[in-house]
């Protein structure tokens, strides 16, 4: 009987310790911390976007690894990468998914504390003004020297593929799981939803690719939270759970 109890306890411990239940060792995730180096992203004075997204990216790396994934970061320190460098890494490494991490901002200082929330984007042309505005801000540094026509050609070249559908699905799973995690601790976090936007960092990647705007760095409540380890951890866990879910569904879809 004692043996049986010990056996049960061991089993319980095994199940309860939360180790990876699915073998993820064939799945490589490329995580891209936005901006870096001379490009500080949103807010260049005190709390910088480029530092925040690097902190979250490092937590993400740890979380993905603990689930058994292989992980590659486009940058693991404060340095600038061009658009091409970021997405080429994902292709060269044959990543399953490409995730770019950013923090959002608005220009209108009188509305800083009104606008907040988490948003996940996938690449698509859109007439939605808000998405266009956010994309324009994030695109500014990577597009230097590229004329408008070339930008259109770049986007058109990737718009008609199954990648858009897969990226959309990935975006939904990631957004849902980030919200689930954040809301368990912070019930007033705003769900900004999944949106299409012409982010150039997603253009060159020939695999399911999303861009997560983890929150508004211009909103004082959200900024304070974003720079805490706990909040960053919830975001990272949510993203990893979202990717798990997406890949598990994808496996079922393609039948093995
Ligand atoms: Zn950004």
UniProtKB/TrEMBL annotation:
EC code(s) of this entry: 3.5.1.28
Broad class of enzyme this protein falls into: hydrolase
InterPro entries named in the record: MurNAc-LAA_cat, N-acetylmuramoyl_amidase_3
Pfam families: Amidase_3
Recorded catalytic activity of this chain's protein: Hydrolyzes the link between N-acetylmuramoyl residues and L-amino acid residues in certain cell-wall glycopeptides
Keyword Oxidoreductase tagged: no
Domain MurNAc-LAA, residue spans: 87-244
Alphabetized SUPFAM superfamilies for the sequence: Zn-dependent exopeptidases (SSF53187)
PROSITE patterns given in the database record: PROKAR_LIPOPROTEIN (PS51257)
Keyword tags: Hydrolase
Hydrolase found in the keyword field: yes
PANTHER family xrefs: N-ACETYLMURAMOYL-L-ALANINE AMIDASE (PTHR30404), N-ACETYLMURAMOYL-L-ALANINE AMIDASE AMIC (PTHR30404:SF0)
Name of the protein: N-acetylmuramoyl-L-alanine amidase
């Amino acid at each position: 009987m004692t043996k049986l109890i010990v056996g049960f306890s061991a089993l319980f411990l095994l199940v309860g310790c939360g180790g990876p239940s699915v073998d993820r060792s064939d799945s490589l995730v490329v995580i891209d911390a936005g901006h870096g180096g001379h490009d500080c992203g949103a807010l260049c004075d005190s709390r910088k976007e480029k530092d925040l997204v690097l902190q979250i990216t490092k937590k993400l790396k740890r979380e993905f690894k603990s689930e058994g994934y292989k992980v590659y970061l486009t940058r693991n320190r404060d340095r600038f990468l061009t658009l091409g460098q970021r997405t080429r890494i994902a292709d060269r490494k044959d990543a399953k998914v490409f995730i770019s991490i950013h923090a959002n901002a608005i220009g209108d200082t009188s509305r800083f504390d009104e606008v907040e929330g988490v948003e996940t984007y996938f690449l698509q042309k859109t007439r939605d003004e808000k998405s266009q505005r956010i994309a324009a801000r994030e695109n500014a540094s990577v597009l230097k020297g590229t004329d408008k026509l070339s930008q259109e050609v770049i986007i058109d070249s990737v718009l008609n593929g199954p990648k858009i559908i897969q990226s959309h699905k990935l975006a939904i799973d990631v957004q849902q799981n980030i919200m689930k995690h954040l809301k368990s601790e912070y019930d007033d976090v705003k769900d900004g939803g999944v949106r299409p936007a012409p982010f150039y960092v997603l253009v060159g990647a020939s695999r399911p690719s999303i861009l997560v705007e983890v929150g508004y760095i211009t909103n004082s409540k959200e900024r304070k939270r974003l720079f805490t380890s706990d909040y960053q951890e919830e975001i990272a866990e949510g993203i990893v759970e979202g990717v798990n879910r997406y890949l598990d569904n994808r496996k079922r879809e393609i039948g093995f």
